[in-house]
Design brief:
Layout: H1 3-28, H2 41-50, H3 56-69, H4 73-77, H5 81-87, H6 94-111, H7 120-123, H8 131-142, H9 152-160, H10 169-179, H11 185-198, H12 211-215
Helix pairs in contact: 1-11, 2-6, 2-8, 9-11
Length: 227
């Protein structure tokens, strides 16, 4: 069997496996929605920036009081950054994130008429916003699915179910996008995040009776290391 044929066979098997996983996610989590709390568009963007390498639960605990003070883009743009740093000091990398949020707000005011932009190209011009953050924001705020955001949960399941060869988040996104029809991209991140939080966590355990593991039992023996 030639390498080309072997590669095509592997791709076809992955595509079929991905289709079964997505079918489950669509039925179980039919309305993709983040668990991050927010009232305004820029609060959501800020929450996603804060959530990098931090749990949504921790971000929400901080945001519960924070969003009462910072509501509009202008509020974030003219913040006293030292005060803001103290207010989010329980968040990982809080100094860098405070800078990203304030500078992003200033750019949104200056370049986008005070409105969170609606394209990846524009979003990634903002400090602290890369592929994953941009597409979480697009999906959540505008129901635009132009990419699959890969976080720790998506990475873990993509590797456990042998859907990808890469371990780098941005490359995993591209591999998944090649496997999954674009109409279903919006279900992947949200579905796997919720499944990873509430059904099958990252600590090795017997998950043979879990819904997704039943679709491909080999996944029950695969526990990728954190990046």
């Amino acid at each position: 069997m030639s390498q080309l044929v072997m590669n095509q066979k592997k791709f076809d098997e992955r595509r079929k496996r991905a289709a079964k996983i997505v079918s489950y996610l669509k039925k179980t989590y039919p309305v993709p929605k983040t668990e991050l709390v927010y009232d305004t568009d820029f609060q959501l963007l800020s929450a996603v920036i804060l959530s990098a390498q931090c749990t949504d639960k921790k971000v929400n605990a901080v945001a519960d009081k924070l969003w009462k003070k910072y509501k509009t883009v202008a509020d974030f743009a003219r913040m006293d950054r030292e005060v803001f740093e103290r207010e989010i000091s329980g968040i990982t990398y809080y100094r860098s994130k405070a800078r990203y949020i304030q500078e992003s707000a200033q750019l949104v005011v200056a370049n986008f008429d005070g409105k969170v932009p609606k394209t990846e190209k524009e979003l990634i011009t903002l400090p602290g916003v890369a592929y994953k953050t941009a597409h979480v924001v697009l999906n959540e705020l505008f129901n635009i699915s132009e990419g699959i955001p890969t976080d720790t949960h998506v990475r873990r399941f993509a590797l456990r179910f042998d859907l990808v060869d890469n371990t780098v988040l941005s490359k995993i996104s591209k591999e998944l996008e090649a496997l999954i029809p674009k109409k279903d991209w919006k279900y992947v991140n949200n579905g796997l995040v919720l499944y990873g939080r509430y059904v099958c966590n990252a600590i090795p355990h017997d998950c043979s009776k879990h819904p997704l593991t039943k679709l491909w039992p080999k996944a029950g023996m695969i526990w990728p290391k954190a990046k």
